[in-house]
Amino acid sequence: MNRILFNLTLMFENLKKSKNLKTAYTVFKYLFFLCLAGGAGVLLLVIYYVWDLPQPEKFTETPFIQSTKIYDRTGKVLLYDIYGEEKREIVSFDKISDNLKHAVLASEDSRFYQHGGVDILGVLRAIWIDIKQQSKSQGGSTITQQLVRSVYLTGQKSISRKIREAVLSIELEAKYSKDQIFDWYLNQVPFGENAYGAEAASQTYFNKPASDLTIAEAALLTAVLPAPSYYSPYGSHKADLLAKKDVILEKMQKLGYITEEELESSKNEKLNFAESTISIKAPDFVMYVKKYLDDKYGEDYLKEKGLRIYTTLDYDLQEYAEKTIKDADQTNIAKNAYNAAMVVINPKNGQILTLIGSKNYFAKSYPAGCDENPEQTCLFEPKYDVATMGQRQPGSSFKPFAYATAFKKGYTANTVLWDVKTEFNPTCNPNGDDTGTVCYNPQDYDGKNRGPVTLRTALDCSLNIPAVKVLYLAGIPETLQTAKDFGITTLTDTSNYGLSLVLGGGDVNLLEMTSAYGVFAAEGNYTPPVSILKIEDSEGNIIEQNQEQSTKVLDTQIARQINDILSDNNARTPIFGAHSPLYIPGYQVAAKTGTTQYFVDGWTMGYTPFAVVGVWTGNNDNTPTNDEGVGIAAPIWNTVMQKVLSSNPVENFTPPEPITDRSAALLGTLPADDTNTILYYVDKNNPSGPQPTNPAQDPQYALWQIGINNWLIQNKKY
Q: Does the structure show a pLDDT above 80 at 50?
C-alpha cells in the first residue's frame, strides 16, 4: 500500500514539473518574440531617423538665407534687416585658439572626448541640479547634439526631435572623429550680431582672428553662446555677460585648462569691444518688435522665410523726437538728468508712432565702464529700453486714474476737498506733526495749504493732499482696477499699496502709461499698444495682420470730464504759470506732469484726441536729478507735441455734459462758509446715497476735520 502511494506521489511530482516546464517555455517564447519585435521597432526607428543623415559638407556650406526685413508704416524706410548681413568665415581647426576650445568644452560639454554623442551622466547631473535649484537652467545637450540641432533640426521642442537629435548624434560620432565634429561646431555655432562661427565672432567683437583670442576673450565669446541676443555685449545685459564669463573662467581652472594666476588675471583683463556694425534705425522700437517676432515665430523661421514686417512707426516723427531729445541733452545733464525716453501713440487705434527707450542707443554707458563693474551703477545705460522694460514710479502722473475712479462713484470736477495739513494714519498725532515711519502726512509741491479747493483745481495744480483724499474716497482696490483696465500690468503687489499710490507709489513703464492716457483721449476706449500693421511672406501673402479692437473701459462722460480738466490752462496757471511748457497756444491739449520724491523721475504725459505723447527723464540708477519748476521732461514733450499738432488737422475735445443729479456736496454747491469735511456729508462707499447718520464712524473723518479746524485757526477764519 505504501509502495502504491509512493508511486502515485512520484507520478504527481513529475506531472507537476512537466507543467512548470511547459509554462516556463510558453513565457520564454512570448518574451523572445516581444524582444524580437522591440528590437525590430528600435531598428526601424533608427533607420527612420538616420536614413538621411547629413554629409560632412552639410556642416560647412553656407545656407540660403531669406532675411526678415522690418519697415516703417510707409513700407519705404527699412528699419532693420534681420540676418541680412550674415557674417561667416570657415577656418581650419588649428586656426582656432585653444583658449576658445577649452572655454567651450568647460562651459558646454566637459566630457566631450569621453561620451559617444549623448552624455547620460551629463543629463542626469543637469536634472539633479535643476531639482535642487527648482529651475530648468541646466542643459544636458552635448556639443554634438547642439551641432545636429543647429544645422539639421528645427528648434521645436518635441519628443520626436529629441529622439532624432540623440540618434543622429550617436551616428555622427560613429562616422566622424571628435576633432572633426568640434571643428564643424566651432565654425557653425551662432555668436550673435549675425556672426556664425569662431572666426566671424572674433572679428566682430574683438577685431582679431580666432587664433589670437586671449583666455578672457575666449571665455566671453563662450558666455554669449547660450543666448546670443540676451548676452550681447552691445545689449542691456552686459553685466550678466561679464559675470557669466567669470563663471566659465572658474570652470576652466577647475578642469586644469588654466592656472590660478591665469584665472585672476583673466578676470581682471580689460576687454576692448569693437564697435557694432549692424545698421538699424529706431533701435528700441525695432528690438521691441523683434522680441515679439522671436517669441512667436522663432529664429529659424525669421532667417529662412523672407518675411516683410510693416510696422506702425512714423519714421519722420521718430527722427524728430530723437533729435529733440539729443538737443535737450546738455540742458538735462546740467540738471543731473542723464537719460530720457519717449513714446507717441495714436489713441484711436493703439498704434505706436514713436518709441525711444534711451537718449542714444549707440552711445556708451556713463560713467565710463560702469556697465562692466557689478559694484558700480550707471546713470545712463544706452541699450536699456526704459520705455518698455523700465519700471519707474510715475509720481503725480498717476493721479488722473484715481480721479477717474472717484468720478465713477459720483464725485465731480466741482466737488470740494480741503487742501490742509492732514495726518492720514489714525494711530498718529492728528495734527500732522508726527514724523514716524508709520505716519503719513504728505505736503503739496510748494509746501503751501490752500484751504477748500475743487477737484478740478486739485488735479490741474497737482495738489498732493487733496489727491490722497481722492484716492481714499475712490478706493485703492477700485483705483488699481481702473489702472488695470487701462492696460497697466505692473501694479501687481496689491497688498502693499497704500494711500501713497496716488502720488506714484507703484512702478509702471512709459509705454503702458502712454497707452493708458490714450483711454482718456479716446473717450473711454482702450486699445492695446500695436507695433505691427501686417506681416507678409516672401511671396507677398499676408500671414498676420493687425486686428486689435478697442474695449470700452471708462464711461464717455467721465473721460470727457478728465479731458476738460487736464486741458484747462487757466486752472493750472496758479502753479505752473500761464505760459508753461504744458500750454500750446491755439490748440486744446491735455497734460499732466509727475515728479517722484527727490526728483528721481520726471514725467510729462499729454494728449489730443489723435495723439498721446509720454516723456520720462531721469537716471537709470535712480540718482536724484536737480529738477525744478515744471520739470525736465515738459520742454521735450512740448517740442514734439507741437510737431504732432502741426502735422494733423485741428481736433478739440468734446466737452462733458453738465451734471445736475447729485447732492450739494458732490456738486460743490454747499454754502461758502461751510467748514465740514466732505465725509460729514457722504459715505465713501456710497457717496450718492443718504448722508451718514454718524460720520465719525469713518476712521478718516476726525483726521480730516481736525486738519480743517487747525487751518481755520491758523488763518484766523474762526
A: no
